[in-house]
Structures are given as C-alpha cells and as structure tokens.
Design goal:
The complex is a heterotrimer of chains A (161), B (262) and C (813).
Chain A: E1 2-8, E2 11-17, H1 23-30, E3 49-52, E4 55-58, E5 71-73, H2 87-94, H3 104-117, H4 123-129, H5 141-150
Parallel strand pairs in A: 1-5
Antiparallel strand pairs in A: 1-2, 3-4, 3-5
Helix pairs in contact in A: 2-5
Chain B: E1 5-7, H1 12-18, E2 24-27, H2 33-38, E3 46-49, E4 59-62, E5 65-69, H3 74-80, H4 86-93, H5 98-101, H6 106-112, H7 119-125, E6 129-132, E7 136-138, H8 139-142, E8 157-163, E9 167-174, E10 181-190, E11 193-199, E12 207-208, H9 210-217, H10 223-226, H11 244-261
Parallel strand pairs in B: 1-3, 2-3
Antiparallel strand pairs in B: 4-5, 5-8, 6-7, 6-8, 9-10, 10-11, 11-12
Chain C: H1 16-21, E1 36-42, E2 48-54, H2 56-59, E3 64-68, E4 105-106, E5 112-118, H3 121-128, E6 132-137, H4 144-147, E7 163-169, H5 174-183, E8 186-194, E9 197-198, E10 206-212, E11 217-222, H6 227-239, E12 246-249, H7 265-277, E13 281-284, H8 287-293, E14 296-297, E15 300-308, E16 314-326, E17 353-362, H9 376-394, H10 398-405, E18 412-413, E19 419-420, H11 425-435, H12 441-450, E20 453-463, H13 471-476, E21 485-491, E22 497-501, H14 510-522, E23 529-532, H15 550-576, E24 584-587, E25 590-593, E26 599-601, H16 602-610, E27 625-630, E28 639-649, E29 655-665, H17 672-691, E30 722-725, H18 745-764, H19 778-786
Parallel strand pairs in C: 1-13, 11-12, 16-17, 22-23, 29-30
Antiparallel strand pairs in C: 1-5, 2-4, 2-6, 3-5, 7-17, 8-15, 9-14, 10-11, 10-13, 15-16, 18-19, 20-28, 21-22, 21-27, 24-25, 25-26, 28-29
Helix pairs in contact in C: 9-18, 14-15, 15-16, 17-18
C-alpha cells in the first residue's frame, strides 16, 4: 500500500492506496465524495472530470498515487463560500442544462475550466471544449446555453425560442 | 486492473533504473495506457510514472529547431506553439479533449505509436527525431508499424525534436466514436521538399505518402494531388467505420485539404 | 397563487440543486455496512455448450466469499417475460427459459455464467478471472433471415426453431391489402434496416441487495424506471419472495431510455445472494459490461410497400418485418415489434388498408427490448421513408404528398385498431415550415453550393401512441400486467403535501412538474408540495415510467387523488363556515362560500382534518389523504412535423446537421422548459441513430461496437442548436389534464427527417441514391455515392431482398 496526502476541496486529506487505485475510486470510496461519477471505462464520457492542480482531468484515468501532494477540486468544492451555487452551477439550473444529473458534475467541472481559460467562448468553442463530456439527456442545447450565460453572454431565456 | 508497484521518479536516471525491474512499464500520462490496463490487457509488475521528471518537460525553440520534452502535455504544446508553430499547436489542441490534453504527453503518444494517434504523423512530417535516455532516433526509423517502435526494453522517450517547416497543416477526419483520426494527414513544406505523413489509415501505422511528397515538392498546390493514384485500399485498415478503399480515398482528400490550408 | 409556478410555467427544477452540488444519491452512491462485491463471469463466445465450470482456483483467492453458478438457483424461476404474443396460426409465442446464470449453454457474448462475491471489488475481479468455464463452441446465429432456415443452429435446443412468433395484423385485412397493392396505379417498395441501438444512459446499472434476518425482509436498491414492476417480477416469478417481504428502491437514476425498465438477472442475483450470505451484496456494471448486458433496442429489417391510386392517394400499406429478440425474451420484448409498432402503421395518413407481418427471431445476441420510442420509431421510420421515396418516384413534392393524405377529422378510427382522439397535422406542418424557414432553403442551398457542399432538407411527420395504456386492452393483446398508474396525496396537518407517485423520474423532472400541478389545483406554493417516488415501501403500487406515460397516466392518477382530497376538504370547509358543501369554492388556497365574503384558508381546513375538534365526525373521517389508481381510456397521440437540414461533404460523405426544427403537438403542457429539454434529448438520440450509433456484431456473434471507442455517442460538436415549438395544441380528450406526453417524440420523429435530408442533398446534387441504411456514416454515404450509377444506394446489404447476409444489423461499413 502507498500512503498519499493531497488537498481536496481546500482540505488536507490522506489515505492508503494500492498502486492500481484510481483517483476516482479514492475520491468516491475513501473520501466518500460521491458527486464524481463513473460513466465509462475507456476515458471518454467525462462524468468523472475533476480539477487536478487547476486543470480538468478524467479522474478515472489518473492513478491516486500519482496525485500525492496535488490540489484537487471536485463538484462538492464548487459552491460559493456561502454555500450558494457557483455562477456555472446556477446557470445550469437556470437554463435547464441537466436532466438526470449523472454527467452534470463532470460537465460543470469541464465548463468551469473553459471559462478560466477563455472567459467569453463562442458556441463553437464551447462545443469543442465539451467534446469529451457525454450527455445522453439534453442534446447539449441547454448545456451550451448555460455556459454562454455563465460567461455573461446574452442567451434567449428557456422555453421562449 | 491488476495490481502493481508504483514509482514516480524525478530524474531520467532514476526512471531508467526503476524500469529495469521485470515487467516494469513507463507511464507518461496514461491516457491510452490506462484504458488498456483497465481491460486487463496489460499486466505490469511496476508502473513508473514519468510525469514528475522536470527535465522531460517544456518546449524550446532555437531558430527552426524545436525541442519538446517527452513528459510535456498536449495542453502545454498547444499553448506554447500557438505562435511559433501553429500547425503543431493545432494538432495538439485537437487530440482527445481538454481532460485528455491536460494529462496525455507527446512522449507517451510517440512511444505507444497507436496507428490512429496524431503525434506520430506530426512528428514524422516535421523531420522529427526521437530522443531517448540513450540515443537519438530519426522518426523515419522510430515508427515501425502498428504499436511498434524502435524502442528497446526500458528505453524512455525523453524528448521529441522537430524542424519547424515553412508551411504546414494537419487535416484530420475523425472516427465518430473514438474521435481518433479515421484518417489524418500532416503536410509540412520545407525549403528542401515536402513531407506528407498519414495516420489512422494504414495497417502498418503512420507512413509517409512519398508519391504525394514528390508531386508537392515540385509544386506546392492541392491540384498536384489530383493526378496521383489513390493509395491501395488493400493496405489500409478496414473496420466498422470505413473500408480500406474509403480510407485510401480519404488519404487523398485530406492531403489536398492539408495542402490547401497550409 | 403566483402564476410563475403553476401549469404552463417554467419554474427552475428543484432536483437540480442536489445534482449540481454533488449530493444526488444514485444507486452506486449507496454503500451498506458490511457489503460484499459481486463480479459476473460472462461468456466471451456467442454460442456454446457449457460443459462445466471450474471454480476451485478462484475460490481459494484472497477475499473470495462464495462463487455462485446456475446450480445455486435450482428452485428459482428464470427472468420472466411480461408479454405473450399469439402467432397468425393461433399458437402462442415460443418462450424459452431465461436463467439467472447460464444452464447448459451460453447464448450470447455477455451471458452470465458465474458470479464471484468477495470482500472487495478488486478481489472479486481478480477471482472472476480465475473462474474457468468449459465451453464447447457451437456455431452462432446472428442473421435473422438465416436463423429461420431449416438447418440453422438453434439458440434454444428445446424450441422447434428460432422463430419466436409470426404475427399478422390486422389478419382480416390481409387479402384486401394484397388485392389493393396488385390493383394500384403505383406501388413504392423499400427495404430498410432499423439499426440496433444501445441505450447508454450515462449511469451504468447497479444493484445492491440487502437482507434483514430479524424481519425476513429483502431490499433491493436498483437503477430502475419502475421499482414496483421489479418487485412483482422478481418476487413472484424468480425468487419466490412475497411482496410484503420485498422492498425495491430506485433512488436517483441517471437516465433510463427504456433499458432500465426491464428486470435483469443481476437484480435477482444481488437480492438472492444477500440472503444467502447474510450480508449486503453490491454489483456495479462497468460500461464495457453494459454493452453486453443491458437490453439493446430496435434491430428490425423491413420490406414496406405503399400503394397509391392515380391521384396519389394512399390506398394500402403492407409491411414485412424481421424483429430481433436476441437470445432471450426481455421483459417487454415481444410487445415492441407488435403492439407498439403495428398499431402505428397508419401514421398521420388515411390509408384505408394496412397489413403488418412481424417475425420475431431468436439470435445469439444480447436481448433486444424497448428503447426510447420502442416500436413507434420503427413504424415512423418506415412510413416517412416510403412516403418520401414515393414522392420522388412520382415527381411530386413530399410535403404536398403528405398533406394530401393527412387525416383531418377526429376522432379517427385507423385500420390498425387504435382510434386517434385529436390532432391537427396541417397545423404542425405549417408551424414546422415556419420555424425551419423552409422558404429560405433555396438561398441557403445556394450558399452551400458556393462552399462546395450539398445541402438538403428532409421532413418527417410522426404520430405516436403514448400514455401507455388501457389495461383491459393490453390484457387482450397479451400483456401480463395492468398499465394503470397510482398516486397518494397526503396532506399534512399544516397544509403541506406529500404526493407518492408510482411514476419514476430518472431525468424527467417529476419533482418539479408534479408539484406544479398540485400547487395549481389547490392554490398553494409549489414549495409546499413534495413528490415522493422510487420506493415500493413509500409509494402505492405503480407501473413506473416509460412510453411517455408519466404525466398522462401518473399525472392523471395524481389529479384524481387530489380531487378526492379537495372534495373532502370542501366538506370540512363547509362545516367550518356553516355553509352548503355545494357552495364551496377553492381558489388561491382559500375556501370561499359563493355569494358571501366568508372564507377559510387551506391550512385551517387541513389542521381541522387532523385536529377534529370542530368537525363533522359523524359524516367523514378525520385526516386528509387519498389514493387514486388511474387506468387510461385510450392511448394519447402526440404528433408533429420535424425538419432536418444537412450539408453533405461530397468528397468524404460526411453529413453535418446544420439545422433541426421540431413542431410538436403534445396537448397541454405543464412545464415548457422541461418539455423542450425532453425534445432536445430525443432529437439527439434520433439524430444519433440516423448518423452515428450502430450496435454491430460480426458473423460469429462477437460484439464489434463494444465500447465508446466504436459505439458513437452524439457529442457536443455533432449537434446544432435546435428550434423546437409546442404551440400547436389539441388537448387529449380523455385525461383530466389534456396532456399527451413528450418523452419519446424527439427520438421517433427525427431519424427519417435526417435520412430524407441526406437523400435530398444527394439527389439535388445530381447523385441519384434511393436509400442508405442507418447510420449514415461518412463511409456509407460515400459508398452509396460511388454506387449511384447502379442506383442501389445502400452501403449495407442487409435490406436487399433475398440477401441472407442481411437479416440484421451487419457490422460492415
């Protein structure tokens, strides 16, 4: 077993893992942060997207042991300090950017990372950036709108098109 | 996955030492290797991560000579080459998706030599040289067929060197499920000739389409491709997503498009 | 009552907060104290004789608790089928046993053979690999037409053949249809494949079994669209657990799309093993496992013929379909190609004569069952393709040909049993052409031409039967269950309300929409209403969510229960205000007496119901809680016009969807935002089927599209912004809300629109192609373009008549 320490959502955590333990399993099973989901086993669906040292990564494709000393943010760490939804989370609710909610945490993490890199992305840039996050419910329409809205761009209100 | 020992050395020397263990494998981002291991198609005794080796990271440009550390992520290459080598930046920025790009590395990509990977084409076309812990290998000799390279047991890709061409473009036609290239062509024009490297198409992995190179070297124009015979579909991959003939056809179409956009 | 929360408004979804903050509770988030982990050993061959299973080495591995094989399930039933079809010859369908774990034979890649239960998941996986089944390969049969040959290998040795049933509908019309086709001025014929799909909800299936020895009660947590159905099927038919000793919980469920309707072996296994081992047992599907264990969808091969008279009126329609059942009959599988398909073959058209023949076939593939739309997309695809082909052959406008044959008078009795209550197909067609800017198409086509692209516009006008279904009718049709829905409206003393519904939300947003309805009926704030679903211990017997039935059937049950509550509350209010019950009105949360200024608040009445000091105890009981079971009088019939605009890259065959418009008539709408979201998602799945998604097997029964590396899920970059509209409203006449349902429409109406658009683009570009089978991948479109001279089109030989290579979704490019 390998002993690891890291910072998750601003709090120092530690644990023992096998070499093969995936970061997502450490997050879900050791830290009991079950907001990060597993939707595939081929590094494609993006439901497990978290931020590792500020960059979006698929936590199903990173070994926990590789993250010793890293700074990690999961969906549970995205709310504002007062507990309210972040502007990205709020935009997803306002623009109906989620249905079953399963891909949503990864989608929010990916979208948040986009705005850090590109504060006012075009529709095409948003779609390109979210290519690695699969949603089966929304057809992406309202996800794209939510990200546009979260970046302060004008979008038509829901159910008024 | 099968269990394994894990090491994350901070120097190339330590990594080479760690890889001397029986059935040890190098792991440089793992965006291709990890799914393989999850399917239990690989059974390493030890995984040696190369992502903490600072001397293997970064992008350096000296005139037209480019050095990219083996452990440099696609995201970094995309960012660092945006001005100096936009075609390669564009290639890096279209590999996988942002999450894959923030973990996957150029060293991992060329060492794996997936027949549908992007970097082997870019490297081959850009007069690449693969730098390892023990030698330098021209890309023409390095890529030896599907998942086959000139690497020896325990040898690490520490950097990839390239020449920045006068003009270049990477035209990629994706396979709709994996988003890997179904066929993609990297065209690079140098003052002494043109290189055309094709990925995704051939049963033999990445290759140079020499007929196109000759035609383009005497006139760098998309029209020069029209007169060429389509490569033989029998040599191409045929699967659920496209026949060999279709891929052969795409080689020609993508080459033309790359030239037109370069 | 503020109007921003009632019927017809779009309040934000209350369930979103937990999903957005990572506090949703999906089945895999449930970890019970002392739980063990199950890993299934599955067949890697499509067909083989199982001569034995060597579990010795595996049993000795670290952490292994027990290894289960078929022998452990002696005395248990198989996975039951919920629908029985009768063949044309009067015989009932052939119904093989579907064991929990393979008995004697394996019949598809993924067929479960054994299960390892261990202390940790990793240990269970390690040991599962050491289980050694002794399998003698048998020839596999994957091609439906070949499967029906006399000398074909049999999937089930005990059956007379691989034919499950041979169904004719309406059998009495058969000769008249044959005659009409023979005598027609024009007959258009088309053979086509409705490609096999994998539903792929983003949450893979999970089951957690638990057993309480002190009370002899079993609990199953599962990713289900209908927990009561699972309780009934698993308790009564598989494990012999009486329903009062079995609780099934389906908590937050990450999408269903049909594939989570069915009862699966893994659910029964975890429930069974938990009792055997006296500890909780958990199974979590990997995505790779899901590809070979979740029921697949579609996979029909059809020959369709449309007869027209000299004025282009449709006179008769005849279809001949092979429907793949896979290796076993999944829960609703037999009903999909029959009652959910044949009854819709009239479409929007007044074709007087229709005959449908369906041969359901066993093959060595994963079982096939309902997938979003289930039967109705197959019907719509055939109809909307054949009408387009007829228009091209006759040289008439496909829109005009549709309009000419539209049904315009309602109610309309179709020749295929069902009676449409309402609809206005010209209205939705008009609306579609408007929002799609059909008038501007030629100018856009010219722009595309300048870019070197071929632009096309394709149309489809669908009808579906939703709000499933009148129980007495489906009983006659072979259903082994009723299809009512239930609700309990429990009013608390302070006036807040809990609604326990048998419907189940796995993305549809019932917690928001159902609360809107109750809030409107009573005139209180929606925040005062809580919707409880997904737990057999907390909700009355319900049939769950599928077939766009939640609001039409579940919502109706809730309305009926709320009406009972309101009637009783009015009695109490009348007593409190010393007025006649007939004069009491309820509005904005106040009971008033007509013609007076007397009033009493909702909360005062509810308090009186539970503190019955001043109360008519001699007339009514205390308390305020009512249950209703609603059995619909008819199906509902949503309809709509869909238009797809594509650009085709003539050099590569790549199709880009550059515009998609949908004008639906869903009857009354509770929450427009949610309805639009449902349509968006359905469109993505329908466009996905048309262009990318394909579950393909090779001739040996190996699954080729076995992961997201080869099964193409629609991505964000693949789709445009959609234009959707639901302003055409003909309310349903037979349910209290006038609603029709919206969940499946997008997936039903879109595939033919996409295919028609691509063919339009090619033909406008001078490339004569009649048909290309879905998915219209670049390779297939390109191949069709190369074969244009022969005018064959199809890159997939499957649908070409006598071609035996073709009775299925062949995995060739």
């Amino acid at each position: 077993m390998i002993k690891i320490e890291m910072t998750v959502n601003g709090r120092p955590v530690s644990g023992e893992v096998e070499g093969r333990t995936l970061l997502v399993d450490f997050i879900r099973q050791t830290l009991l942060l079950t907001g990060t989901h597993v939707g595939c086993d081929t590094t494609q669906c993006g439901a497990c997207t978290i931020h590792l040292d500020g960059e979006p990564v698929k936590s199903c494709s990173v070994l926990a042991a590789e993250c010793a000393g890293a700074r990690i943010t999961t969906i549970e760490g995205m709310a504002n300090a007062d507990g309210s939804l972040s502007s990205m989370q709020q935009a997803f609710q306002d623009y109906h950017g989620l249905q079953c909610g399963f891909c949503t945490p990864g989608m929010v993490m990916a979208a948040t990372a986009l705005l850090e890199e590109n504060p006012t992305p075009s529709e095409a840039e948003i779609r390109h950036h979210l290519e690695g996050n699969i949603c089966r419910c929304t057809g992406y329409h309202n996800i794209v709108k939510a990200v546009q809205a979260a970046s302060g761009q004008d979008v038509t209100p829901v159910a008024a098109e | 996955m099968y269990d394994f020992d894990f090491e994350r050395p901070t120097t190339i020397q330590d990594a080479v030492e760690a890889l001397k263990a029986e059935e040890a494998i190098a792991f440089s981002g793992g965006q291709t290797l990890m799914p393989t291991m999850k399917q239990r198609l690989a059974m390493p005794s030890k995984v040696v991560s190369l992502t903490a080796i600072d001397e293997m990271k970064g992008v350096r440009l000296d005139g037209t000579s480019l050095w990219i550390g083996g452990a440099t992520t696609h995201a970094t290459v995309k960012r660092e080459l945006a001005e100096s080598y936009p075609a390669m930046s564009s290639l890096a920025g279209r590999i996988g998706d942002p999450s894959v790009r923030s973990r996957g590395t150029i060293g991992g990509s060329v060492a794996n030599n997936d027949p549908s990977a992007c970097y082997p084409a870019g490297t081959l076309a850009s007069k690449g040289v693969i730098v390892t812990d023990r030698r330098e290998i021209p890309a023409d000799e390095f890529f030896q067929g599907m998942f086959m390279t000139a690497l020896e047991e325990g040898e690490i890709v520490t950097a990839v060197k390239m020449q920045v061409p006068e003009r270049a473009h990477y035209a990629k036609f994706i396979q709709p499920a994996s988003r890997f290239p179904l066929t993609a062509v990297y065209v690079a024009k140098f003052d002494d000739g043109v290189r055309v490297a094709v990925t995704g198409a051939s049963e033999m992995g990445v290759f140079r389409w020499t007929e196109a190179e000759e035609a383009l070297s005497s006139g760098f124009d998309a029209g020069a491709i029209d007169g060429l015979a389509t490569p033989d579909g029998a040599d191409m991959i045929s699967d659920l997503h496209g026949s060999g003939d279709y891929r052969a056809h795409l080689v020609k179409v993508m080459t033309k498009r790359a030239v037109a956009a370069a | 009552m503020p109007k921003d929360g009632g019927i017809g408004t779009s309040p934000k979804r209350r369930e979103d907060v937990r999903f957005l903050s990572g506090t949703g509770r999906y089945t895999d988030d449930i970890n019970l104290h002392g739980q063990a982990y199950a890993v299934f050993v599955r067949s890697d061959v499509a067909h083989g004789r199982l001569n034995g299973i060597d579990t010795e080495a595996a049993a000795d591995m670290p952490g292994v608790i027990r290894i289960f094989t078929a022998r452990d399930f002696e005395g248990c039933g198989g996975v039951p089928c919920g629908w029985q079809i009768t063949s044309r010859d009067g015989n009932v369908m052939q119904e093989p046993k579907h064991p929990i774990l393979a008995e004697g034979k394996v019949r598809h890649v993924g067929d479960p053979i054994a299960v390892v239960v261990a202390e940790t998941l990793a240990q269970a996986r390690d040991a599962a690999e050491a289980v050694m089944p002794d399998i003698e390969d048998l020839p596999a049969i994957v091609d439906m037409k070949a499967a029906l040959a006399d000398d074909a290998p049999k999937v089930h040795d005990e059956l007379s053949s691989n034919l499950c049933y041979d169904w004719g509908f309406v059998e009495e019309n058969r000769e008249a249809v044959d005659r009409a086709i023979k005598e027609a001025a024009h007959v258009t014929t088309l053979e086509l494949v409705n490609n096999r799909m994998i539903a792929n909800p983003m949450e893979p299936r999970v089951a957690v079994g638990d057993y309480a020895a002190h009370s002899d009660e079993s609990t199953l947590y599962t990713t289900s669209q209908n927990p009561h159905v699972i309780r009934l099927l698993m308790g009564a038919f598989v494990l012999n657990i009486p329903e009062h000793k079995l609780r099934v919980v389906a908590p937050d469920v990450g999408g269903g799309f049909g594939t989570k309707i069915f009862h699966y072996a893994e659910e029964a296994f975890c429930t069974f093993a938990a009792k055997q081992l006296r500890r909780p047992v958990k199974w979590t599907s990997t995505r790779s496992e899901a590809f070979m264990s979740d029921a697949h969808g579609r996979d029909h091969v059809t020959k369709i013929e449309l007869a027209l008279d000299e004025d282009n009126n449709f006179t008769a329609l005849r279809t001949d379909t092979h429907a793949n059942m896979g290796a076993y009959l999944s829960t609703f599988a037999p009903s999909v190609p029959t009652w959910l398909h044949g009854t819709l073959m009239a479409g929007n058209y007044k074709t007087p004569l229709v005959y449908v023949n369906v041969k359901a076939v066993f093959t060595n593939t994963v079982p096939v069952d309902a997938y979003r739309g289930a039967g109705r997309p197959e019907a719509t695809y055939q109809l909307e393709r054949i009408v387009d082909k007829a228009a091209r052959e006759l040289g008439v406008d496909p829109i005009a040909l549709r309009r000419q044959n539209f049904i315009t008078e309602f109610p309309y009795q179709t020749p295929v049993a069902v009676q449409y209550d309402t609809g206005d197909y010209h209205a939705t067609m008009d609306k579609l052409l408007d929002i799609a800017d059909h008038a501007g198409f030629e100018a856009r086509a010219e722009e595309s031409r300048k870019k070197g692209k071929l632009r096309g516009f394709g149309i489809s006008h669908y009808i579906e039967a939703c709000g499933i279904a009148p129980s007495n009718l489906v009983g006659q049709l072979g259903a082994r269950a009723g299809l009512y829905e239930s609700a309990t409206v429990r009013v608390n003393a302070t006036g807040s309300i809990s609604v326990m519904t048998g419907s189940h939300s796995h993305g549809q947003g019932h917690e928001t929409t159902f609360a809107q309805v109750i809030a409107e009926m009573i005139g209180i704030d929606a925040d005062q209403v809580d919707i409880v679903h997904g737990d057999t211990a907390r909700t009355p017997m319900g049939m769950g969510t599928y077939g766009s039935r939640s609001i039409a059937v579940g919502g109706s049950a809730m309305v009926r229960a709320a009406e009972k509550v309101i009637n009783k509350a009015k009695k109490i209010a009348a007593h409190l205000m010393e007025a006649s019950e007939g004069d009491i009105e309820l509005k904005d949360g106040q009971f008033t007496v007509a013609g007076t200024d007397k009033s009493v608040a909702w909360g005062d009445v509810t308090l009186a119901a539970y503190v019955p000091h001043n109360y008519p105890l001699e007339e009514i009981e205390p308390g305020l809680e009512e249950t209703a079971f609603y059995d619909p009088a008819n199906f509902t019939y949503p309809s709509g016009g869909y238009g797809c605009e594509v650009e085709v890259d003539s050099e590569t065959g790549l199709v880009e969807v550059v515009g998609f418009a949908a004008a639906d008539d869903f009857g009354n709408v509770i929450n427009p935002m949610i309805v639009e979201g449902q349509v968006h998602g359905g469109l993505a799945q329908g466009i996905g089927q048309a262009l990318w998604e394909n579950c393909a097997y090779d001739a040996d029964g190996q699954l080729l599209s076995a992961s997201y590396m080869d099964y193409a899920m629609p991505r964000s970059t693949d789709l445009p912004m959609f234009k959707v509209d639901h302003s055409c409203v003909t309310p349903c006449t037979h349910n209290p809300l006038g609603v029709k349902g919206c969940g499946e429409a997008g997936a039903i109406g879109s595939p033919p629109a996409v295919v028609n658009a691509v063919l339009d683009a090619l033909n406008r570009g001078g490339i004569a192609v009649d048909h290309i089978d879905m998915p219209l991948s670049p390779a297939r479109v390109w191949a069709a373009m190369q074969g244009a001279g022969a005018n064959l089109g199809a890159a997939q030989p499957a649908a070409r008549s006598e071609d035996t290579a073709g009775g299925r979704s062949v995995g060739t490019p």
